[in-house]
């Protein structure tokens, strides 16, 4: 198959099967975001194609641990823990702009999105250039930015014991950290640098990361 990579103003026809890690990184550095889709005369780009495409890039696999969104795994030929749903919360729930897994020590370098059935209305995955946001905040609120550079940011989360699928950040602490018991969870948290935690009276977990 030949796939099309494009941004708003430019496009390139590229044989996706020939892409490797270096070529992909160069394209992403050039355009910042890439759109991959089937040509009108070709067979649909399936979720299995998507999984194979990601796997064939040769990137280091990222373990999804620490995320807040309730998600489920989409099994594909390339692996059973490679692709997740974006969010299991109801569609009326607002998901604000954010850096994926910014609250963990090693957030992912790349993000991939796949759409199997486009929504009739809305449904877009909006992207924002963080460098533009940084320049705006730095120019508009220089004192705040100076404090941020000096002291860093602190994330405080309250994580429930059970998944709350009515919330876009309602993932339980069992699924967040991929554990089955509280003892296993505490062992994992105690081994994490710059992390503090506290068990609350209602059984939820308060986590602070810097």
TrEMBL record:
Keywords of the record: Oxidoreductase
InterPro entries on file: AlphaKG_dependent_hydroxylases, TauD-like_sf, TauD/TfdA-like
GO molecular function: oxidoreductase activity
Pfam families per UniProt: TauD (PF02668)
Superkingdom assignment: Eukaryota
Ranges where the TauD/TfdA-like domain occurs: 8-158
Coiled-coil segments: none
Protein name: TauD/TfdA-like domain-containing protein
Lineage: Eukaryota, Sar, Stramenopiles, Ochrophyta, Bacillariophyta
């Amino acid at each position: 198959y030949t796939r099309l990579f494009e941004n708003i103003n430019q496009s390139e026809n590229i044989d996706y099967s020939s892409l490797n890690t270096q070529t992909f990184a160069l394209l992403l550095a050039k355009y910042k975001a890439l759109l991959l889709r089937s040509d009108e005369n070709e067979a649909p780009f399936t979720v299995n194609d998507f999984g194979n495409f990601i796997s064939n890039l040769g990137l280091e696999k990222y373990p999804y641990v620490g995320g807040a969104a309730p998600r489920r795994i989409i099994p594909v030929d390339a692996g059973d823990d490679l692709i997740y749903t974006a969010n299991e919360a109801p569609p009326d729930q607002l998901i604000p702009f954010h850096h994926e897994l910014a609250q963990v020590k090693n957030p992912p370098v790349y993000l991939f999105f796949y759409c199997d059935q486009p929504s009739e209305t809305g449904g877009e995955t909006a992207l924002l250039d963080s460098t533009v946001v940084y320049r705006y905040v730095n120019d508009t609120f220089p004192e705040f930015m100076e404090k941020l550079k000096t002291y860093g940011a602190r994330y405080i989360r309250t994580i429930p014991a059970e998944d709350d699928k009515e919330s876009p950040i309602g993932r339980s602490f069992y699924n967040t950290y991929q554990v089955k018991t509280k003892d296993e969870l505490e062992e994992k948290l105690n081994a994490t640098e710059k992390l503090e935690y506290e068990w609350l009276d209602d059984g939820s977990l308060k986590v602070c990361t810097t």
